[in-house]
Amino acid sequence: MTYVLIFLGGLAGSLHCVGMCGGFPLAVAGAAPSHGLVRQLLYNAGRLNTLVFIGALSGALGAAFVAAGPVRQLEQTLAILAGTFMIIVGLEVLGLLAQVTTRGAALAQATVGRMLGGLMRSRSLAAPLALGVFNAFLPCQLIYAFAARAASTASVSEGMLTMLCFGLGTVPAMLSLGVAGVLARPTVRARLSVASGVLIIAFGVLTVLRGFAVLPHSGHGH
Fold this sequence. Notes:
Elements: H1 2-21, H2 23-31, H3 36-67, H4 71-93, H5 100-115, H6 117-121, H7 126-135, H8 141-152, H9 156-180, H10 186-211
Helix pairs in contact: 1-9, 1-10, 2-3, 2-9, 3-4, 3-7, 3-8, 3-9, 4-8, 4-10, 8-9, 8-10
């Protein structure tokens, strides 16, 4: 059930991804329109591979942190820190805190977009895959939040599964944008953004409660 909710979090937040990274699938589509669907699938496969890698790395870092001392105490500390960070990101998504990470992410997207201009214009089928890999490494509020959740599992496998479910949730919107140029109406986007922020905060609260031993720990990586 947890991973279904993470998928829904990715789905709800996917229009945030469209707003931040929408230029990439549109560029992929424009480079070779005759292979549009194949190129978009490769682009999203690249994104998912990187997100799973981030999940594995986050889970491994969480496991290393927990293994560095008294397991239970460090596990609880990690959960509290990760949950608090998720709450902060969720409040930013809702517009209740200053958009510090949003400004940094927008700047990074614009800078990298200029650097990868040649790759985005390439007609090679390897180009959209490589672009997807690079794209998922860019700063993003949602990736920050769910990577924190992945770290809190203190498990490589659960960290990977967390980021895979999140990434799969973002695919429908990104694929629709790239294949058909579909963009939701501003009112729909606003509602989904609110839903995303609320879900991130809810995950953060649950993670903090787990840190305070109010809820059981679900990780199996220690």
